[in-house]
Amino acid sequence: MAEPHHVHDHDSGEGLLSVEEARERILSKIQLLQPLELPLTEAYGCVLAQEVRVDRDLPEFASSAMDGFAVRSSDVAAAGPSSPVELKIAGRALIGQRPEGTVGGGEAIRIATGAPIPAGADAVVPIENCETEGERVRVFAAVPEGKHVRPSGEDVRAGETLVAAGRRLQAPELGLLATAGISHPLVYPRPRVVVLSTGDELVSPTQTPGFGQIRDSNAYTLFAALREAGAVPILAGIVRDDADALRETILSHLAQADVFVSSGGVSVGERDVVKAAFDRRSELGFFKVAMQPGMPQGFGDIEGKPYFGLPGNPVSVFVSFEVFIRPALMKMMGRRNLFRPEVPARLEQEVSGPRGKTQYARVRVRRVPDGWVATPTGGRGSNLIGTVARANGLAMIPPGTETAPAGSQVRVMLFRSTED
User: Fold this and answer.
1) Domain boundaries, the chain
2) Which CATH class is domain 37-58+154-188?
3) Are residues 333 and 358 in contact, defined by beta-carbon separation less than 8 angstroms?
4) Mean pLDDT, 10 residues at a time, over the chain (420 residues)?
């Protein structure tokens, strides 16, 4: 009598890793990249690896906040509209130059906005409150000590922390570092990520597919996702279903890569090239995750470089990147927040999925007066990349929920601004 054939239930999560377990397994192996001193233009977006203290006051000298005359406040204390004080003009103070003189009793120096405050002066009278005649100036308004003077050290005092370690360098930080003369801060660099697409059926987007062939979309999905995450993508092209060719391609990119990502070839078929190429290398493991899409995953390291082997379907690639690869890259770059923001949203339509797995449903989220609402953007098929292009979030339906009805609350991972 024939043995009964075992029928696999694709909706079941039995024997599969949970998303949390899989992510923890991956993140526990991810290390910070070695810090580098990079020029400011390349350090933009990177995380500072050690705090920067300033060794001088910023600004370094007191300057004028107005066009006018630098004076001693005590000399003009009695000045008023009907009782001007007359002072001798002792010189000029121009931007980027030393003042032509000092301010003595009964004297003033003509000064431009941003010019250094000359010695002896402690205030600036705006030009509108002055009247000149030859080498004399009449002042029609009193000014207190320090008026219209930008003091040295007003922004940062010598010895203070300029930028704290762990801070991501963006426009204000780059400007501040440049002001202090810090041209090459020590930062965690952007990971260089080599992207490969595997499959005999793939052709480039510039080619017309023959019967049964498809254009490679995964490389460009990953390219954009990596750029958006702050990494440096390197497209290594299409690799045929040949284990030796894949191994050779990867090894040829070892010197320029911090991370490898391939799509395709990690399932259970006989042509799964990633398994064949690296089965003999114990550093690479393959496992199944209780998620839809994106159940088959490969992860490990090749010569010390993290390797992510993703499924071949385009939505699986995108979801796998968001769930596993992006957090790993954030950790490598020293970022504090590894994960995308999440919001609670009310479903406008029901969402059905595999009862034993976490489902990542593509949704369009928008804000309404009483919170967020999420509208599914299409079917759940992992080949439907258009459903992702129309979405800005992934509604996470937990295991045990076969159908999330319209009106129910779900958590949504936002991967794009809701304004876009």
Assistant:
1) 19-34+189-332, 37-58+154-188, 63-150, 342-414
2) alpha beta
3) no
4) 52 83 96 97 97 94 97 97 96 95 96 97 97 96 97 94 96 96 97 95 92 93 97 95 88 94 73 66 79 93 92 94 98 97 96 92 96 94 91 95 94 91
Fold of 342-414: Beta-clip (2.40.340)
Architecture of domain 19-34+189-332: 3-Layer(aba) Sandwich (3.40)
DSSP label at residue 323? I
| Three-state SS letters, the chain | CCCCCCCCCCCCCCCCECHHHHHHHHHCCCCCCCCEECCHHHHCCCEECCCEECCCCECCCCEECCCEEEECHHHHCCCECCECEEEEEEEEECCCCCCCCCCCCCEEEEECCCCECCCCCCEEEEHHHEEEECCEEEECCCCCCCCCEECCCCCECCCCEEECCCCECCHHHHHHHHHCCCCCCEEECCCEEEEEEECCCEECCCCCCCCCCEECCHHHHHHHHHHHHCCEEEEEEEECCCHHHHHHHHHHCHHHCCEEEEECCCCCCCCCHHHHHHCCCCCEEEEEECEECCCEEEEEEECCEEEEEECCCHHHHHHHHHHHHHHHHHHHCCCCCCCCCEEEEEECCCEECCCCCEEEEEEEEEEECCEEEEEECCCCCCCCCHHHHCCCEEEEECCCCCEECCCCEEEEEECCCCCC
Q: Check: CB of residue 122 under 8 Å from CB of residue 21.
A: no
pTM of the model: 0.87
Architecture, CATH, for domain 63-150: Beta Complex (2.170)
Q: What is the pLDDT of residue 407?
A: 94
- pLDDT for the residue numbered 38: 98
CA 7 to chain centre: 45
